[in-house]
Amino acid sequence: MDPRHLFIDERHTGMCVYCGTRPDTRDHVPSKVLLDEPYPPELPVVGACEKCNASFSLDEQYLACFLDCVIRGGAEASDLHRPNVKRILEGNPALQWRIEGARKRDEAGNLIWEPEAGRVRNVVLKLARGHAAYELYPKLEEPTVVSFAPMQILSDGEISAFEQLADGKLDLWPEIGSRAFLRAFGKSPDRLPLSGDWIVVQPDRYRYAVAETGGVIVRMVLSEYLACEVVWEM
Questions:
Q1: Closest alpha carbon to 45 in 120, 135, 180, 146
Q2: Residue 184: which of 196, 167, 202 has the closest Cα?
Q3: Among the listed residues 45, 14, 15, 49, the one whose alpha carbon sits nearest the alpha carbon of residue 31
Q4: 75-79 contacts, C-beta under 8 A, 24 or more apart
Q5: Pick from 125, 154, 161: which is nearest to 52 by CA?
Q6: Does position 166 have pLDDT exceeding 80, yes or no?
Q7: How confident is the model at residue 81 (pLDDT cuts 50, 70, 90)?
Q8: Count of the separate structural domains present in the chain
Q9: Radius of gyration of the chain, Cα coordinates, nearest whole angstrom
Q10: pTM: predicted TM-score of the whole model, two decimal places
Q11: Most CB within 10 Å of its CB: which of 7, 89, 169, 224?
Q12: Residue 112 falls within a domain, yes or no?
């Protein structure tokens, strides 16, 4: 089997993985705004309609900028270390002001940030749909779980459970011809490196994992800060 010519690509090139309509474009998953230059040589790509592809852009920009501001402790563009985030905020003072307004102090005087949860959820679900389609098959229905939280607030037990997808067990083998099947048996269908259960798109910037265990689980870590999980149960 040629790993670059997979059954999954043949079956689903005729649909947008986000809404099911006919695709007009191809979408990187994750979006480049969540990564740093130079970009990885072989980013995951899925079919998308032009409407869906465009509709996520502003929320993805928001999340990329918000994460970097939280990590750096402020929304001043000159203090940020990601060049693409600097460019976005320098060209969009309204977004910078909006993110700065999310920075608050709690009763003890500790710095806290209040994200726009609906926008974060929109991006997390979009990413999960893209990864599910790329690794297994499209999941267009509403998921059972969409969750996200800073890794710093998780307990050691929660982090351990999150990192070990499905406890390292292959309860169900992914479909032959899917990327997940090849990865499960140590074959690489692309040039993305594996680290345990995780596919590392860019070290310290973005990694994800997909498993089929009586349903579909997609987990992502953004900037080694935001832990995300989307679950579709059977």
A1: 135
A2: 196
A3: 45
A4: 75/99, 75/100, 75/103
A5: 125
A6: no
A7: confident
A8: 1
A9: 18
A10: 0.89
A11: 89
A12: no
In a domain, 173, yes or no: yes
Task: Look up the domain containing 214 and give its range.
Answer: 7-55+117-233
Instruction: List Cβ neighbours of 90 (8 Å cut-off, separation of 6 or more).
Output: 77
CA distance 213 to 171: 6
Strands (E), the chain: 25-28, 45-48, 103-105, 111-113, 145-150, 194-195, 198-202, 206-212, 215-222, 226-233
Write the secondary structure of 129-167 as one string of H (helix), E (strand) and C (coil).
Answer: HHHHHHHCCCCCCCCCEEEEEEHHHCCHHHHHHHHCHHH
Q: Based on DSSP, count helices (H) and strands (E) in the chain, helices before strands.
A: 8, 10
Choose the weakest-confidence range: 6-15, 89-98, 147-156, 201-210: 6-15
Residue 19 burial (CB count, 10 A): 16
Does residue 48 sit in helix, strand or coil?
Answer: strand
Looking at the domain assignment, is residue 136 inside a domain?
yes
Q: Is residue 189 part of a domain?
A: yes
Pairwise CA distance, residues 34 & 95, whole Å: 16
